[in-house]
User: What shape does this take?
Amino acid sequence: MASKPEIPLKSVKTTSKVELSEKHLQALQKRSHLSEDEIRSTFEDFHSMASSGQLSLEEFTKLWSETSPPTRANDPESNHVTKRLFAFFDRDHSGKVDFNEFILASVLMAPGAPTQKLALLFVLCDFNSDGFLSIEEIEHMYLITKAGEDVLDQKEYEAFKTHLKTIFPTYDVKKDGKMSQKEFRNLCTNDDTFKRLVA
Assistant: This one.
């Protein structure tokens, strides 16, 4: 599995402050659909707690509760939510989450347009970075979208996998055993099960 690129940080000697480079700010804007001000504001909060550029679970939980949408932050089960999010976004199992991972988690869990979430889900599930999604990668999408729930319903998950295997050939237009971003978008906007999943 290809390692996920991290957002490099650069030191600005005149202020001894760590900042996002313009190049990576633009990359985050494209991937998250957030404004420059929203990204910079979140980065300031992030950096105030993670001078090394990474957050521990404890730091992640505290910052998530302060910056996530009210519908999530005020949820009595929010600790379970953050632990599961942390475990998923800690892709290399280092026990740390970087800013890039944190802001994408925030976007994914926030209320928003399905199209925005679909683009982000595609990137997150494309583990081998080949620009396509296999059935196995789409199965993992289910786990990502259910990260906000305290307990995974195994029976529901198995039903989802069965449904996916049934309808995958219909949306795999090229019949190559994988889905392009366009095919994936068609699946999620036309199939009732997927529409509910990404709503």
